[in-house]
Amino acid sequence: MFSQLPTKKTKEDKAEDNLGFEYNAENIKELNEKLDKLLQSEENLALLEYHISEVYNASQVSEEDYGTLAFIMNKIESLLASDEYIRETYGIPKVENFGSSANTLWNMDSDVDIVIEFTKPGHHDKGEANMHQKGNRNKDKKQNKKDQLKYFDTKKALIDIRSVLKVMAKNKDIESIFNSRVPLLKFKHAKTMIDIDICLNNSIGIPNSRMTRLFSEFDQRAHIMIKYLRTLLKQSGLLNGEQGCLSSYCVILMVIAFLQQQEEPVLPNLHQGAEADKNKAFYAVSSNKFGRTDCKEIKFALNEDLKQVGESFASKNTKTVAQLVIEFLRFYFLNSEGVMPIIDVSRGGFVFKDTDKLALFDIVEPLDPSSKVGLGCRKDEHHAASYVKFAFDFCKNIVDHQ
Fold first, then answer.
1. Rounded distance, CA 313 to CA 272, Å?
2. CA-to-CA distance for 99 and 374, rounded, in angstroms?
3. Which of 186, 200, 195, 13 is nearest to 117 (CA)?
4. How confident is the model at residue 189, as a pLDDT?
5. What is the CA 125 to chain-centroid distance, rounded?
6. β-strand 93-98 against 112-118: which pairing, if any?
7. Which of 269, 278, 273 has the alpha carbon at shortest distance from 299?
8. What DSSP character marks residue 232?
9. In Å, how far are 76, 120, 159, 327 from 322, measured between CA atoms?
10. Under DSSP, is residue 57 helix (H, G, I), strand (E, B) or coil?
11. Is the Cβ–Cβ distance between 281 and 298 less than 8 Å?
12. CB count, 10 Å around CB of 355?
C-alpha cells in the first residue's frame, strides 16, 4: 500500500523543499518515461486501483444522511414560511440545495450549500436603487425579476433570516459574512453538526449541480475520479479557491473536459444541440468591488435524457480509473510540451487559443460562456510549483510501489 496520501505541508517542510530537491524538467521527463511503461499494463496499476476504491467507498454518503439533509432543508423552509414578518415582507420561501450535496459528490465533512428564493421583492437598497425604482414606477409598475434581484437588500434579508433560523444553530450562533462576493450565513446544525451555508437568490448553483450530476451518472469513472482527486488535493492543502488554489468546481470541470478530450471520449458534450427552456431562468447574483449587486440571468440548456444521449454516443474507452487519474495528473500538472488550452466543457473539452494570463487554468463557466471560473487560482511561481510537486510526489509514489 502507498505510504500515505499527500498531506498539507508545514512551514518546515516547505523550507526543506525550497532548499532541497528541485522538481525540474529533467526529473519530470524521467518520471514520465517510467509512467509510460507503467500505464501499458492494468496489472501494474492494481494497487492504485485498490487505493482509489478504498478512498471512494469511504467518501460515500448513505441514503439516511440524504434523508437528514432533506429534513434540515424542510425545517428551514417551514420556519421561514411560518414567520409572519418574513412572509409579509419577502413572501413564500423556496429552499434548494446545490453544490456537492446536490450533485452526488457530497462528503459528510463538506458544507451544505443552500439557496433561498422568495416570491416577493422584499426590501431594497437605499440611494441609487430607490431612485431607480421611483424613476421606473410610472413606466413599468412591475419590475422584472432581474431588476428585483439587482436592488434587493440582501444584507437586510439575511439579518432577518438569521433571527428566525438561530434556533437550529449550535449555541444559536450564526455567522454573517457580508463582505464576500456572495454574502451568506454560516452555521453548524445543532442536532447533526452538519455545516450549513445559506445564500439568497444566487440560483446559478442549481443548474451547475444538475450538470455535474448528469456527467457523473453518465459514466461512473467521472464520479470516482472527481471524488478521489478532490480528496487528494484537499489533503494536500491545494483545494481552496479563497487562498489562490483550485476550487472544487474547477476540479470538476477539469475532470469532465479531460474525459471529453480522450482519443476515445469517455463523456459526451451534453450542451451540444440543447435548447434552453424560455420559461426557466437562473440568476448569478454577487457583490462587485464597488459594493453594488451584479445580477445576470442565465438560461439553462443541457441534454438531460442520458438514455437518448447514450444511444448516439457509444464510448469505446476501456481505461481504468487508475490509468485516467495518472493521465489527468500528467496532462494538467506535469505537462511541459506546450500551452495549456482553455477548458470549456460546453464546447467538448478544450479550446486551443490564447488563454487567460492571470489564472493558472483558464476555465469557462459552461452555463455562462462569458464568465470564467478559477480566476482566483493564481498563475504565480509558488502556486504553479505546488501543483507540480503534488503531482510529481504522487506519481513517484506509484512508481516506487508498483
1. 12
2. 16
3. 200
4. 97
5. 30
6. antiparallel
7. 278
8. H
9. 41, 50, 48, 9
10. helix
11. yes
12. 17
Q: How far apart are CA 347 and CA 345, in angstroms?
A: 5
C-beta separation of 48 from 275 below 8 A: no
Cell readout for 58 is 469511504
Residue carrying C-alpha cell 482519443: 263
Residue 239 forms beta bridges with which residues?
246
Nearest Cα to Cα of residue 250 among 280, 231, 274, 226: 226
* Residue 65 cell numbers, joined: 444522511
Q: What is the distance between the alpha carbons of residues 49 and 110, in angstroms, rounded to a whole number? A: 24
Q: State residue 151's pLDDT score.
A: 77
Interacting residues of 15 by C-beta distance below 8 A, sequence separation 6+? none
pLDDT band at 141 (very low <50, low <70, confident <90, very high): very low
Pairing of strands 195-200, 112-118: parallel
**Which residues on adjacent β-strands are paired with residue 97?**
114
Q: What is the DSSP letter of 238?
A: -
pLDDT tens column, 36-90: 888 887 777 888 999 999 999 999 999 999 999 999 999 999 999 999 999 999 9
Q: Identify any residues that bridge with 158 across adjacent strands, giving them in sequence order.
A: none
Q: Are 59 and 248 in contact (CB under 8 A)?
A: no
Identify which of 147, 145, 149 has the alpha carbon closest to the alpha carbon of residue 136: 147
As given in the structure block, the three cell numbers for residue 334 are 506535469
Cα–Cα distance for residue pair 320/325, rounded to 1 Å = 9
Give the up-direction half-sphere exposure of residue 78: CA atoms within 13 A in the CB hemisphere: 8
Matching residue, cell 476550487: 247
Asked if 297 and 268 touch (Cβ cutoff 8 Å), the reply is no
Cell output for 5: 496520501
